Fold:
Amino acid sequence: MIRSELVQKLAEENPHLYQRDVERIVAAIFGEIIEAMARGDRVELRGFGAFSVKKRDARLGRNPRTGETVSVEEKHVPFFKAGKLLRDRLNS
Structure:
């Protein structure tokens, strides 16, 4: 499901809301998740999962085309851990 499909589904399930308002709500939710993760905070949605940021240390990598050794800088990557309810639902 992509963002526009999510907005469409929420708009259909809530006919009292205008589609542009649903778009703003979805954008606000994603925006807050992104802002919290940018600050290094953890975002937990009970029953769904938790978003966090993990740090990857600097390391030596290899260019697959030339075989040359390259240094890869330290970086922060998003990480998602599924909640118990989501895992149970997927595996039932």
Summary: The helical segments are 3-13, 19-38, 84-90. The chain is about 40% helix and 30% strand. Residues 1-40 form one domain.
